[in-house]
Amino acid sequence: MKSSGNRLEVEVEAAASASPKQPRRTRKRRKLKRNSSRTIRSKIRLPVFEWDGKGSDGKSAQPLHSPLKATVEVTGDAKSRSDAKESKIELKEIKITVAGMDANKQIVINVPNSDMEASASVFLKKADGNGVLIEVPVKLEFSFEDPANDNLEKTAAFEYSPGSKLGKRNDAAAVFWKAADFSPSKLETPPNQMQPTATELADYASANPMKQAVAKLAIEAKAQLWFDAIIADYGNRVSNWFTAAAVPGGSSLLAVQYYHPKLSNVGTDGQTNFWPAGISINMANHGTGMNIPGHPDIKTWREVQGFNRGGISVIFKNYGNAGRLQIICRHEIGHGTKSAFKRAEFGAGDHSNSGLMTPYGSGALFSVADSGKLRGKS
Ligand SMILES: [Zn+2]
Predict the structure, then answer these.
(1) Number of C-alpha atoms within 13 angstroms, CB side, residue 159?
(2) What pLDDT is recorded for position 324?
(3) Residue 329: which of 313, 346, 349, 311 has the closest Cα?
């Protein structure tokens, strides 16, 4: 069935059928009978037709177009036209889901600028009263009401990153809803090219200082990508392991024996031989604000004794003595406070210049400045 404007056109086919007196006969036998000279009666059989909901302009009819008026018109020799019949397109429900919402329909937003995806599924009402999920584009308008009394004035709120403050009350520039960006550039990353070329290796080994310097930079850039890829990979694997081992959510402290071979200074497992002598990369993780220069093939990039991820802290058994173990536990729990309440960073990479929270835990106690941050100071 096609629709042209408000008029629905239907072609009605005329078909012969066998006498209703022989209902149990098969289709094949009926056909044989029909081909014989027996008397058969003809009747008009209206086909069951469906409409995909689209007009001649290709656009879908929506609830806002209701009520619709439909007219069935028979063309050809037997001209006929039905009365206009009114029909409605009704919504059954709109299901709104917000990623990360808990059983109490609350979202814990500990990182204020993080995005949470909200999606709406629109169900139309079928003739039987049930809902059916549609692909028809429906314009939805979300609105959001800021609970003013529970929200801080922007000017009085903690600035957790440059230009970003916790409170949004009376902030005309605050963004509550934004359109999701599904563009390819946001979803795909280019492949890393980590292998030095034969030319780069030859230039680096050559006696030409100019060629050597250029090749060194190129090889070091690739070695840094290689390091970053390994860090990203073990980061993902740790996440997978947290899930596979059913590490309890909330606040956990885990004792683990082994870490990545290049991060645990036990034995010589971490030694590799991929890169030419004399190159150097930064062996610190991104975001720590640290620079630990070294050759990428070295057996230990860093001697990691613990790390923290939100509510989970992991301690490795390469700590040495009991006093050091105490510092490591305190240090990682110190990082963990950031997921328990809002506070200023201790410094770059959440590390401080003195006391317990220096990158290597140079003291057993928080510095005075760090204690202040734990109490809400900036
Ligand atoms: Zn740390």
Answers:
(1) 4
(2) 93
(3) 313
Compute the distance from residue 350 Cα to the ligand 1 centre, in Å: 7
**What's the CA-to-centroid distance between 78 and ligand 1, angstroms?**
86
Ligand 1 mean position, distance from CA 349 (Å): 8
- For the stretch 170-200, pLDDT in tens is 888 877 777 665 444 443 334 446 788 889 9
Could you tell me the distance, in angstroms and rounded to a whole number, from the CA of residue 257 to the centre of ligand 1? 18
Q: 294 has which bridge partners?
A: 281
Encode pLDDT of 75-105 as tens digits.
777 778 888 888 888 888 888 878 778 888 7
More confident residue, 149 or 125: 125
Domain ranges across the chain: 2-87, 90-141, 143-181, 233-374
What is the spatial distance between Cα 239 and Cα 158, in angstroms, rounded to a whole number?
A: 30
Q: How far is CA 316 from CA 296, 303, 360, in A?
A: 22, 10, 14
Query: How far is ligand 1, taken at its centre, from the CA of residue 113, in Å?
Result: 23
User: How far, in Å, from the CA of 359 to the mean position of ligand 1?
Assistant: 5
